[in-house]
Write a structure and sequence with these properties.
By secondary structure, this protein is an alpha+beta fold. Helix content is about 20%, strand content about 15%. The chain has 10 helices and 9 strands.
Length: about 350
């Protein structure tokens, strides 16, 4: 199955296109394992010339919905709302050459499917139909199962050495700097995970190490700094500097948002925070740690630390259009002379 994402700036933007294969003896036969009852309405939506917000029909029947099972590890804007379709990226874009993956449960047949998502590259986001699903997402240093990496870099750059496993850091490790990139969150390949049978692996996954039986589990991450490294540094870097090439915001400027009306709420309502996998207390702790360490120079003197209750309230009211909210705050910062970009 395939799903596509279109991302630019701090907000993910995605398109989707889908196909799937399942095993039949020694052959691989094409199939569509998901419910097709909403196909006609979905096709009609995709044919409309102008983008719009996703509606709220039964998520099991409408492939445009964020809740639809195939988008379980999807963070971005649906291409079906941005001029593409379930089978094509939008005009003027191309699929990324590498991808990230998710394992999604199809409620119609009770089976698990391995879904490989690709970014579609070459245009900015239309900002419609935001989905932010992070089911089973792994930390940023495990790039193949992390949905916040800008995979369009693979279409414009080649790597000889990667010193650190985080996208901003690749500029230090023999990475040829690409032209500025935007992305459409991409189309995906879904493979049926039959009970104990073999699983066909997409070439984009590369060689995978065979897991050792009864291997020791990794220790639970407990320190606040470690939580930042695991959940945030994969995109923002260990120093929080982000990446202009990948449109990753500079966390060192985070305190400036607190000087603006609505800025404090914006900081903890962005998709990267909402879907981080951290609980409310941990989100508050990590945000406070970033503000008092990496972003200390931008922190207002009268800053009041975040707490779990504030994060909980923010999570109950997620942002509908992150790009528009950020643009409005940047415009207000310019009017007030706050150094934020």
């Amino acid at each position: 199955m395939a799903c596509a994402r279109w991302r630019t700036g701090t907000a993910g933007a995605a398109c989707s296109r889908a196909w799937a294969w399942r095993w039949s003896g020694g052959a691989v036969l094409p199939m569509l394992p998901f419910d097709r009852s909403g196909q006609s309405s979905g096709a009609a939506h995709a044919a409309e010339p102008s983008p719009r917000k996703a509606a709220k029909p039964d998520p099991r029947e409408d492939p445009l919905q964020c809740e639809y099972w195939r988008y379980c590890a999807f963070d971005g804007y649906l291409c079906t709302c941005c001029g593409g379709s379930l089978t094509q990226c939008p005009p003027g874009t191309e699929a990324s050459k590498v991808s990230w993956i998710g394992t999604c449960l199809n409620p119609q047949d009770g089976r698990q499917y391995l879904v490989s998502y690709n970014d579609c590259c070459g245009k900015g986001s239309c900002g419609e139909c935001l989905c932010n699903n992070n089911e089973r997402e792994r930390p940023g240093y495990r790039l193949g199962v992390h949905n916040d990496i800008n995979w369009c870099m693979a279409n414009t750059s080649r790597c000889s050495i990667a010193r650190r496993p985080s996208s901003p850091a690749w500029r230090d490790g023999g990475h040829r700097a690409p032209a500025p990139m935007t992305r459409l969150r991409g189309f995906a390949l879904a493979l049926l995970l039959a009970g104990g049978g073999s699983v066909l692996q997409a070439q984009s996954l590369g060689r995978q190490a065979v897991p050792r039986a009864q291997a020791e589990s990794v220790a639970v991450t407990t320190s606040v700094r470690s939580q930042y490294v695991v959940h945030c540094a994969g995109c923002h870097g260990l120093d929080g500097a982000g990446s202009r090439i990948g449109n990753v915001p500079d966390m060192r400027q985070l305190g400036h948002f607190l000087r603006l009306p609505g800025g404090r709420e914006f900081v903890i309502r962005v998709p990267g925070v909402m879907g981080s996998g951290l609980n409310d207390r941990q989100v508050a702790d990590v945000t406070n740690w970033v503000l008092t360490t990496l972003a200390l120079a931008s922190l207002p003197a009268d800053h009041v630390p975040y707490d779990a209750a504030e994060v909980q309230r923010a999570r109950s009211n997620p942002l509908v259009d992150v790009a528009a909210a950020r643009a409005g705050l940047l415009e207000e910062a310019r009017r007030r002379g706050v150094p934020l970009d």
